[in-house]
Structure formats: C-alpha cells, structure tokens
Amino acid sequence: MYHYNDFDQDFVQERVSQFRAQVERRIDGSLTEDEFRPLRLMNGLYLQLHAYMLRVAIPYGTVRPDQMRMLATLAEKWDKGYGHFTTRQNIQYNWPKLADVPDMLDALASVGMHAIQTSGNTIRNVTADHFAGAAADEIADPRPVAELLRQWSMDHPQFQFLPRKFKIAITGSPNDRAVTKAHDIGLRMVEKNGEPGYEVVVGGGLGRTPMVGKVIRDFLPQADLLPYVEAVVSVWNILGRRDNKYKARIKITVHEHGIDKIRELVEEEFAQIRPQFTGVDQALLANIQSQFTTPTFRTAPVEGYLAERDANPAFRSWSDTNLSDHKAPGYAIVSVSLKRHGATPGDASADQMRVLADLAETYGHGDLRISHEQNVILPHVHKSDLPAIYAALRDADLHTANIGLISDIIACPGMDYCALATARAIPVAQEIATRFDELKLEHEIGALKIKISGCINACGHHHVGHIGILGLDRAGVENYQITLGGDGTETAVIGQRAGPGFAYDQIVPAIERLITAYLELRTDEEETFLEAYKRLGVAPFKTALYPEEKANAA
Amino acid sequence: MARPFTPKVITANALLEGDAIWLTADDQWTRVMSEAELIEDEAHGDLRMLFAASQAHVVVGPYLADAKAGENGPEPVHFRENFRTTGPSNYAHGKQVEL
User: Fold this and answer.
1) DSSP code string of A332-380
2) How far does CA A44 lie from the centroid of its chain?
C-alpha cells in the first residue's frame, strides 16, 4: 500500500496551511464568498442544502486501518458521528463547521489523506476495481498505475481549469467492477503477446447525456500510459466546450468530433509529448509498485469455516452472498454491506469504521477498500477467520447478507443533502430495501442492481442500473422515472426509459410490480433480471409498470 | 401585464455553520422559518434582498423562496424548502432534532 513520502507529506501539509489562512480570511471578511468559493472547492468543501460538506478522496478505494480510524475520528469530532461513502470512492462529511475544516484536513494529512481535487474542474479522484490485488480473475493489480495517475494529476498546472471535471477509472480484471466505460477515461489492463498494456476508452459518462465510452486505443503499451493520458486530456482541454457547461464533458467532445478525429488529434499530441517522458515516470511507477506488495498469505485448514456454514444458516447465507473468489487458495474477499435494510446506503458510523479497521488489522492484512457501490471490502481474508469476522460484523450491525441483491442499492445523497438534487433518492432506497425484506423475496430474486439518482446529474448511476430510478421535480412534486436494462460492467449499456414517472408514494409499488413480473417471466431461478430483460425486451415490464394503460387500451 | 407577486421569504446558509437560515422583519437571521418575515410586495422584496446581500459576513447565497402564511408564521410552498426547515428525511438528525 502506498505511503506518502516527504514530498507528498509536505505538499499536503502546505495546502492545509494555505487553506487555513483562506478560511480565516473568509471569516474575518477579507475574502468575499465569490473569492472564497473556488478556494474551498479546490479543497473539497461544498456548501450544500443544509450544511457544508467535505469530500475526502480515498484514491482507488484503498484505505489503511489507521486511516479508517482517522475517518471515524473526523465523523465523531467534527460531524454527527457518521460518514457517507460515495460512488467515486470518496467519503463525505455532511455537517462540518467552516472553522473546523482546516483542523479536519490537518487530521487527514497526518495519515496521508486529503480532499484536494475532490471538487472543481480538475482530474478527480482516480478510482479502481475494489477487489484490486485480490481478485481471482485479475490480470494485474491496477492500483500502482492509479497511484501514478494520482501523483501526475495532483495540482498538474495544465489541468487545474479544465472545461469540466474529469474522471478516470482503471481495472486490472476483464470483469469490470470499476464502471470504466462510464468514465471520461476508462483504462482496462490487458495483455497482448505476453506484453502488458491497456485498452483505453474515452468519452463515457452518465449525467444528462449518458454515453458508453469508445475505444480510442485497443492496446497501449504500459510505458506509454502517462503521455497518452496526458495527450487525451490536453486535446480535450483545447476542444472542450467552455461555452456551455452541459456540453463540456469529453463525451460531448468525442460525440461532436467523432472518435476517429479525436484519436487522430490525440495521436498527434502523443507523438509530440512522448519524448518528454524519458523514463522518470516508469522509475516512479516501479517505486510505487514496490509498495504494493502482495501480502504473505498463510496456509491453514478451512474445516472450521465449512463446519460453521453447516451449523449456522445465517452465516451460510452471508458467506454465499458477501464473499468473492480470491486469487490465493483458502482466501476470500469479504464485501461488508453498508446497506442494512432501511439504512442510508453508504453511511457508516464512527464505531462501525473502527470495527472495520480492527478487522482489517486482525484478519485482513491491514487492507480495506471502499467500493463504488458504497460498501466496504476486506480484500484478503483467510476462510478460517470468517466465522470470527461474521460474529464481529453482527455485533456492529454490519452483517447484512445482501451484496448484489435488490437491497444493495446505490443511491446518491439526493435532496436530503445535495443542493443540486431535484428529488430525494435515499428514502426511496430505504423503502425498497425495507419492502423486499418484508416480502422475504430478496434471495429468491437473486442478482439485481437498482441504482437511484436524485437528479439528472446521475451520481447514483441510474443509467447503468438493471433498474434505474431518476428523481425529478415535476411541477413542485417529486416524480420518479424508471430505466430498464442498464449495465455498468464490461458489457456496459445505458438503460432505456420505461415510460412516465411515478409519484413518490407510487415508486415502491411500481418496483414491486416489476419484480413480480420478472419472477413470473423468468425461465428458471438461474435467469437474472437483466438476462430476462434482454430476452424479453421492455414490453412485458412496461405492462407490469403501467397496468392501467393496458386496461385503457382494451 | 406583470405577473402577480407570490409571497416570499429570504433564506440563505449561515457562513459559519452552513445551515439554513431565514431573515426576520427586524434584520436578524433565524434558524426557524416561521419566525421569518413574509414578504408580500415585490419592491419590498428587492429592498430586503439588498439588505441580505450586505450581510456577506454572516450568510452565503441569500435568495427569495416562495412561502405562504401559516398559523404560526411563514411556511414553505415547495418540498425543497420544506426539507430545509426540517433537515434530511432519511433519519432525524437535522433541524428536526436541533431546534
């Protein structure tokens, strides 16, 4: 895992001192809000609907136990006792006081964390597969490259005032758990003739104009990555639509100019700047890679785990749902659900964060991850330790067995917190989860991703939800549109809008009708909702959603 | 013909705490919307916004929000403003427990 060197530490500490002085000047009136706003945004501080919100980066979702404990301390000391993990592997604090924020940033800096570039028209937190370095299906650990990109993009003088924000995601597995095709640049580690490299995808994104990214290079040698990414961002920095923020993202640039033209321009730029990269970046990458060593995995019997599975149905259910295949024999990847039925997706209390830190330290080789699906991962756990981990999670109310199921919902903060939102998202997620828990259908339904956004900006990734829900304001009333068939994986697809929206009190019954129809229509228990949708098309699901239209037509 | 003026209140976020606040008739900022001044005249609203804009040392982003007269004072018209009077609805930890 990467540890700050002296340069990193000095840089972050200096930024905190700088921001402390800026906050003081805002409070004493020397800075107006217009002057202060860009400065606070450069340090991840927003002013939302009810309070300030501080967004802290968790680069590539990787967090150490001491860092997790510090996140807990921030929640307890300067917030209301909890933090909110987001779809871009950040943590947000919803209630800080302005004068406290420099102290919060100081505390973060003491454990090698910061909030720089978590806002603004810059290159944002670089995200990665949350199973990186652990997954059985992985080609290579993408995190060293993500760290290289983080260091390159941090305070990059050319990229501080981009046309809009810019998001990069990277995966080292063919099974894409990082939604790379919905990012401005998506990087997929691949091998060609035994040589490591990348498939480079550009122009993906959700928001008001959702698009799946296009392949700009099907194979980029590893050593060319940084100059190539720099070429992509440079070309967009010039071409990007600064006249209209809604058309400024690179997806629009790619759409307007065409991928072939963008590829041509990027290759020209790349040819020019490639000689400037004389190998220092590769030396730096090698240094970073040396810090991402594979833990020393142990060999131990797993009979205790198997016996507990036989003896304890709740444990069996949890391990069936919340474990994933690890590359090391006898090991598992544990996904800890932050989606207890009826809870706010992504929220963790300070106590829960400390429990997770303790578990990572005791059983998990000191490694924790935050997933873009708003859960926490213990990536390296020996199966013999799973009964003890489950017991500890149960004591902390973190043992919900619902990973990948209907209640494992991504929900953006929505109008409960966000100043941009046009409707609520969290309570809809809470009510869907509660309803299907009451119906006891969750495990029968099987794999299903519901994603909910409280506005058109799509922070809840609704476009790539198997069932997407978009909350809007229709004549002063919350209204929810449903999209169907979205997919955020390597086979990414934007979901199709099903029809007119539903009132707040009608959205959960609508989802229930949809699921009931799926259960009746599927060929067998193996056919997932998405597979059934692909086989049958939208028609039978529309009939379930809008039964009155069918009746009127009859 | 000019559109009829719908009643309004002036609201903003507090500079230090960031929470929702409203302007009272005696030039104070209150955490309780029902204590706000209900503005029923457009010209008066313009004047009050000038005052609010002069308060940049204590508030951020003042604006006029639609409101209606209630039994105990102004009440929100739109659901967004309603949430600002109570705090988030996912669980009780905003103004609903603070005030």
Assistant:
1) EEEEEPS--TTSPTTEEEHHHHHHHHHHHHHHSTT-EEE-TTS-EEEEE
2) 17
How far apart are alpha carbons A510 and A452 in whole angstroms? Answer: 14
Residue whose token pair is 């500890």: A392
**Residue A94: strand, helix, or coil:** coil
Which residues does chain B have within 8 Å of residue A33's beta carbon, measured at their own beta carbons?
A: 15, 56, 60-61
Given a contact cutoff of 8 angstroms between Cβ atoms, the answer to whether A371 and A131 are in contact is no
Helix, strand or coil, per DSSP, at residue A182: helix
**Cβ of residue B68 closer than 8 Å to a chain A Cβ:** no
Give chain A's end-to-end CA distance (angstroms, integer).
63
d(CA A166, CA A254): 14
| pTM, 2 dp | 0.97
B17 CB within 8 Å of a chain A CB: yes
> A50 vs B17: CB contact, 8 Å cut-off?
no
Which B residues, 41 through 60, put their C-beta within 8 Å of a C-beta on chain A?
56-57, 60
For chain B, the average pLDDT equals 95
The partner residue sitting opposite B90, judged by closest CB among A97, A426, A473, is A426
Least CB–CB distance from B18: residue in A27, A29, A98: A98
**Contact yes or no for A115/A56 (Cβ under 8 A):** yes
Q: Which of A444, A480, A448, A482 is nearest to A466 (CA)?
A: A448
Q: Give the CA-trace dihedral at A391, A393, A396, A398, to 10 degrees.
A: -140
Average pLDDT, chain A: 97
| Helix A350-363, helix A386-395: angle, nearest 10 | 170
Per-residue confidence (pLDDT) for residue B4, from 0 to 100: 85
- The percent of residues in chain A predicted with pLDDT above 70, rounded, is 99
Span A370-392, pLDDT tens digits: 999 999 999 999 999 999 999 99
Interface A:B, Cβ pairs < 8 A: 69
Instruction: Give Cα separations from A453 to A414, A418, A425, A456, A472 (angstroms).
Output: 7, 11, 6, 7, 9
* Helices of type H across A88-160: 101-109, 143-153
Q: Identify the sign of the CA torsion B30, B31, B33, B35.
A: negative
> pLDDT digit string (tens) for A38-62?
999 999 999 999 999 999 999 999 9
Per-residue pLDDT of chain B in tens (99 residues, 90 and over written 9): 677 899 999 999 999 999 999 999 999 999 999 999 999 999 999 999 999 999 999 999 999 999 999 999 999 999 999 999 999 999 999 999 987
pLDDT attached to residue B1: 64
Beta-strand relationship, A323-325 and A185-192: unpaired
Residue A550 has pLDDT above 70, yes or no: no
On the CB side of B46, CA atoms within 13 Å amount to 3
Is A315 in a helix, a strand, or coil? helix
Q: What CA–CA distances, in Å, run from B44 to A62, B10, B50?
A: 54, 11, 10
CB A124 within 8 A of CB A167: yes
In which band, very low, low, confident or very high, does the pLDDT at A553 lie, cut at 50, 70 and 90? low
ipTM score? 0.96
